[in-house]
Amino acid sequence: MFKFTGTIKVIQDTQKISDKFQKREFVVTDTTSMYPQDILFQATQDKCNILDQFQVNDNVEVSFNLRGREWTSPQGEVKYFNTIEAWRIEKQGQSQGMGMPSSGPSAMSLDADPLPGTSAANSEDDDDLPF
Questions:
Q1: Is residue 124 helix, strand or coil?
Q2: E strands, the chain, where?
Q3: pLDDT reported for residue 33
Q4: pTM score, two decimals?
Q5: What pLDDT, on a 0 to 100 scale, did the predictor assign at position 99?
Q6: d(C-alpha 2, C-alpha 10), whole Å
Q7: Each residue's pLDDT tens digit in the chain (131 positions)?
Q8: Boundaries of every domain in the chain
Q9: 58-92: per-residue pLDDT in tens?
Q10: 5 with 92: CB under 8 angstroms?
């Protein structure tokens, strides 16, 4: 699980890719560094509507997973694609603390179990690694 904090720059409309798949992309800008970064995230399926509760210029923290896949073209060329898939969006300044989602609309979980085989018990706080 990864987190990114910034300001919403763009919220696009939901795109229906097929009868069984839809996605909605949004851009969050990190302005804390000398060189601001615009990061493109996506929400999928029934999670697309959660973005309706946010507006451009909202300060948010996005919890996300990195997804990657391989694709082979008809000519046999292999390419790799990455996706940054958001599973929670939380407005900044209205939360109850890190890792504790608010019960109101400012914290919207996009997925109860972010990765197959993981759970809320597998947090960084429970990690017994020395680094």
A1: helix
A2: 2-11, 15-18, 21-30, 37-44, 59-72, 78-91, 107-109
A3: 84
A4: 0.67
A5: 36
A6: 20
A7: 899 999 999 999 989 989 899 999 999 999 788 999 999 999 999 888 889 999 999 999 999 999 999 999 999 999 999 999 999 999 987 543 333 344 444 444 444 444 444 444 444 455 555 55
A8: 2-116
A9: 999 999 999 999 999 999 999 999 999 999 999 98
A10: yes
Which is nearest to 114 in space by CA: 53, 17, 44? Answer: 44
β-bridge pairing 2-11 and 15-18:
unpaired
Amino acid at 6: G
Q: Which amino acid is at 111?
A: D
Q: Nearest 5°: CA angle at 115, between 109 and 117?
A: 125
Q: In sequence order, which residues have a C-beta less than 8 Å from that of residue 24 and are 6 or more positions away?
A: 11, 12, 13, 14, 15, 42, 43, 44, 47, 48, 51
CATH of 2-116, one of 2.102.10.10, 2.40.50.580, 2.40.50.140, 3.20.20.140: 2.40.50.140
Buried/exposed 3-20: b ≥16 CB within 10 Å, e otherwise: ebebbbbebeebeeeeee
